[in-house]
Amino acid sequence: xxxxxxxxxxxxxxxxxxxxxxxxxxxxxxxxxxxxxxxxxxxxxxxxxxxxxxxxxxxxxxxxxxxxxxxxxxxxxxxxxxxxxxxxxxxxxxxxxxxxxxxxxxxxxxxxxxxxxxxxxxxxxxxxxxxxxxxxxxxxxxxxxxxxxxxxxxxxxxxxxxxxxxxxxxxxxxxxxxxxxxxxxxxxxxxxxxxxxxxxxxxxxxxxxxxxxxxxxxxxxxxxxxxxxxxxxxxxxxxxxxxxxxxxxxxxxxxxxxxxxxxxxxxxxxxxxxxxxxxxxxxxxxxxxxxxxxxxxxxxxxxxxxxxxxxxxxxxxxxxxxxxxxxxxxxxxxxxxxxxxxxxxxxxxxxxxxxxxxxxxxxxxxxxxxxxxxxxxxxxxxxxxxxxx
Length: 389
Hints:
Blueprint: H1 2-17, E1 27-28, E2 34-37, E3 40-44, H2 57-70, H3 78-82, H4 85-98, E4 102-106, H5 109-120, E5 126-130, H6 135-144, E6 147-151, H7 156-164, E7 171-176, H8 188-197, E8 201-205, H9 220-224, E9 231-236, E10 246-250, H10 252-261, H11 263-266, H12 273-288, H13 290-307, E11 321-327, H14 329-341, E12 344-345, E13 348-349, E14 359-364, H15 371-388
Parallel strand pairs: 3-12, 5-6, 5-7, 7-8, 8-9
Antiparallel strand pairs: 1-2, 2-3, 4-10, 9-10, 11-14, 13-14
Helix pairs in contact: 2-12, 4-12, 5-6, 13-15, 14-15
């Protein structure tokens, strides 16, 4: 044990020396454009609360109503006694919202992908994954025992080459819809065309597109007008929806199979039903309040225009995720600290979360931000650029 602890201590020191050690900040109060850390308020561009719903009065009221109706805990797994009417209604509403025959609710997006992928593919099968996919897709693929083939980011030509020469009985293409560190959108039309051509399934992780993209916020598939029984659609409910949880939607038989075989659904205690009642209220706001997405698009354009003259590039993105790539880990931390001193919170993202030499500031915008707050961030970065640029 002493040797193990010494090794871990050395590894932590190495992380610190490479500017890769992570740390948490304790936040007081609700999510919003202003976050309180201790007794100091920060203008925050670090949250995935893209529509500004996490502290909405209608959601708070719905949570209270769910608390009164169901109490706090679900008591057991969904297949024992934890599947409530609230969750049943939520699954029905989510399936209708994204235009799928059926949906299944999961506790988190990570748990969803860890359950979905091994239920669909196993030894002898092949999974094809975009190089920049989120960790939960990668971990789900590794857990499955299937052959795991990685294609370069958004490279449909390379994916076709891999699919064409593959003879596995079952092939599964997995991809983020909106890539969480770059903010770009996957070529979903081309991915689906290849899956149809080479008899493969397509799992789309729309964690960062659900609620933001498509008519009424119905997601990335709706953004492209795509529908197919080959697609399994996973959306998360703790980002634009402002609450917690995730779901997968698709062909009714596929969803039934996941209910029977997804271990992260079967063997975990069901989520508190009060979250489902809250999500039903959230879904209505996502559907009806188009002004939130319109305002968000305006803020994105304002930010990109304001940062265009910096020596550091902002990656192409039409989503609330805007990545200012500075390459060097130390510089990313210095810029984060420089903004911190100005009362602005933007996280520095470093390897291994992103590829080597692509350290960045990951700026997340929300419909709750104002144009004046965007301008404050722009001014703050230009001030730092005079020193570091």
